[in-house]
Amino acid sequence: MNPKYASIDFASLDKRRKMHIIFPVFLVSVIAFLDRVNIAYAGMTMSQQLTWLTPEIFGAGAGMFFLGYFFFEIPGSLIAAKFDACKWIARIMFTWGIVCGLLAFMTSEFQFFLFRFLLGACEASLYPVIYAVLFPRWFLAKERAAAISLMLTSLLIAAIIGAPVAGFLLELNIFGFHGWQCLFLIEAVPALVFTFVFLFWVKDRPDKAMWLTPLEKEYLNETIAAEEKAKENVKKYTIWQSLTDKQVWRLCIIYFTWITGFWGFNFWMPQVLKGLSGWSPALVGVAIIFPMGAALIAQILIGNSSSRTGEKRWHIAGCMFLGAFGLICAPFIHTGILSLVFISLTAIGVYAAMGTWWSVPTTFLSGAAAAGATALINSVANLGGYLGPFMLGVIKQNTGSTDMGYFALGAMLIVSGLVMLTLPKKTAVELGQQEKEQADTGQYGGTIN
């Protein structure tokens, strides 16, 4: 690295990137997760007023979100890659906030399906834009797994906060609105308000940031541009090549099977725990804090470990196997407390490797190609987001139990882990960067911890 950057305070630069990039995106992700999974908690009481809401319809409606995601993911990601990523994220937030509020007024199966589809369509491309457009403009490749892992603790923080809040809101009856309606209305407000905060807080490129010095801007622009050029020197992917690349499609298979298990677990877990334990919705909400807290700690450890060692395959595959073990054992547990232990194992398995996972596509893709491929991976995977909840709903409706569904979800996670282990240990770009770092004794720079 150029010695002229030796005067940069990298510890300070890392702290400011956390505050001005990771933290606001973290808040966006918290709000997004609350608004997409509040249906899981609302499902504990909705059927008392909505007589048409059978387990099969609930599973299909919960999963309908991901069909909206599927159709609009790639176009949205390509738009953001060409223009201002932060303005696109703000647009996403505002529209999903409106649709979340509309869920409080649904009165038919058609409206349930429509609003869940629209919620997915509005949120589509949020995470691919973050992973493949915004973060690669701010963080070096070696920092990305830890940075994304830190940001994605948002999913677990949202679950830890959202579960007890949802349990409390479900007990309300305000102005004639039932608890589940209060849940949708109140949780729509943060998305609408934070849209405008985010728009003025976050900049999508270092050049636009007032909180960087000129030398820091030059450092980030130069080093990130050098990494992008290194990828292109190995192979410069067009958008079409990235969408038809064999390795990209292998990543699609890994994430599809992972997400089938992930969302099947998340959407049905509160109801399954309530049925096993007989606890009230409020107590179920509090109990879920424990498995999500365990997964939160594991996610930070996994992300930092992967960034430190450069290893990704076993960090991800090991989590898949642990999640599968938790799901497959779950049907044999018939008490509330013990079920929390296996829910914790499953939560660690399906959550902990997320940050490491989303650093994988950008190890060999960049620019619009990375945005398009990441969107493709997420789109295909989100079909699993439809399949998992719907499959459990059908199985429960026809057998009266989710046991066989949990076996199927566990098998999906095993497939995900096995396919992950077929990926190369390091890409050609990573090997080249590793050789350069070993030869460069004057290396400067910080890491995200």
TrEMBL record:
Domain (Major facilitator superfamily (MFS) profile): residue spans on this chain: 21-428
Record-level GO cellular component terms: plasma membrane
Main subcellular localisation: membrane
GO MF term list: transmembrane transporter activity
Regions that span the bilayer: 21-42, 57-81, 88-107, 146-166, 178-202, 248-269, 281-302, 314-333, 339-357, 364-384, 404-423
Xref: Gene3D superfamilies: MFS general substrate transporter like domains
UniProt membrane topology term: Multi-pass membrane protein
Record localization: Cell membrane
Domain of life (superkingdom): Bacteria
InterPro entries: MFS (IPR011701), MFS_dom (IPR020846), MFS_trans_sf (IPR036259)
Keywords recorded for this protein, A-Z: Membrane, Transmembrane, Transmembrane helix, Transport
Protein name: MFS transporter
Organism: Megasphaera cerevisiae DSM 20462
